[in-house]
From TrEMBL:
This is Methyltransferase family protein. The lineage of its organism: Bacteria, Bacillati, Actinomycetota, Actinomycetes, Micromonosporales. Keywords: Methyltransferase, Transferase. InterPro entries: Erg6_SMT_methyltransf, Methyltransf_11, SAM-dependent_MTases_sf. It comes from the Bacteria. It comes from Actinoplanes italicus. One of its GO terms (biological process) is methylation.
Length: 272
């Protein structure tokens, strides 16, 4: 199947409905440290214009704004934008939130000093279009950076488990490819000079593997939406399969979950 044969608009409509299900902020807020690390790695300065792409509840935008940058967040899930605005207000952070698609960002060419994303842009179904947009909106000499789950880490394995139950659309490549240097070379070519490609870990901490499974099935929009279609033995098996992923990566011995999840933190400079 070629790119032109894939109905990306239909896929994004379904994705948007999924992210607006449940309450992703209950998961996303726990990942704030990833945004703090990325903003530091990109050396964001006060007064710089920073765009948080597929921002969700605004982790990167908030981290940038608290460093006195001029922060903007873009996402197509309006409920998450509202949560982002509430978070910004609660922390007296001046952030602009815009409804928009990562594959068609509603901002002018070359308008940002740093264009960043934490586990957000990786979910755009047309990966090449999303990468092109990151380049387009970044000023020459500006930074492009993202944090993306890797295929082999805990979340990569979680996604593979979910895909075994709920097949992704035909022709769409796994989002975790953003967590590989090979895919970044394919997507950006010579347009970005990568100055930092660092494998990091975010550690998930839950009361038990079953607690992690319940939390994700209740709040993680795409998983919540699918779990709602199951009942009986299927629902129980799906819940157990999610818990088993957490169990495989768990390093704790006290019954709780302390599970490192690998991601790639990538920062580059947009060439002119």
């Amino acid at each position: 199947m070629t790119t032109t044969e894939i109905d990306y608009d239909a896929i994004k409509k379904s994705q948007r409905a999924a992210w607006e299900t449940g309450d992703y902020t209950r998961v996303g807020n726990t990942l704030q440290i990833m945004a703090e690390r990325l903003v530091e790695a990109a050396d964001v300065r006060a007064g710089q214009k920073v765009l948080d792409v597929a921002c969700g509840q605004g982790n990167v935008a908030l981290a940038a704004a608290l460093r006195f940058a001029d922060a903007t967040g873009v996402d197509y899930a309006v409920n998450l934008l509202e949560r982002g605005r509430a978070r910004a207000a609660a922390q007296s952070a001046d952030i602009t939130f815009l409804e928009g698609d990562a594959e068609q960002l509603p901002v002018p060419d070359g308008s940002f000093d740093a264009t960043l994303s934490t586990v957000g842009v990786m979910f755009a179904p047309n990966q090449q279009r999303a990468a092109d947009e990151l380049v387009r909106v970044t000023t020459p000499g500006g930074k492009i950076g993202h944090a993306s789950w890797t295929p082999t880490g805990m979340i990569g394995n979680l996604f593979k488990t979910v895909s075994g139950w709920n097949k992704p659309p035909a022709g769409v490549v796994p989002p975790t490819l953003w967590g590989t240097t090979e895919r970044l070379t394919e997507l950006f070519g010579e347009r970005v000079e990568w100055i930092s490609l660092t494998k990091r870990e975010y550690v998930f901490r839950y009361r038990s593997p079953e607690h992690l499974s319940e939390w994700f099935r209740t709040y993680y929009g795409p998983m919540t939406r699918f779990a709602g279609t199951l009942s009986g033995a299927d629902a129980e098996k799906f819940a157990a399969d999610i818990a088993d992923v957490a169990r495989r990566f768990n390093t704790a011995t006290d019954g709780t979950v302390v599970a490192p999840a690998e991601y790639l933190e990538a920062v580059g400079i947009r060439r002119g």
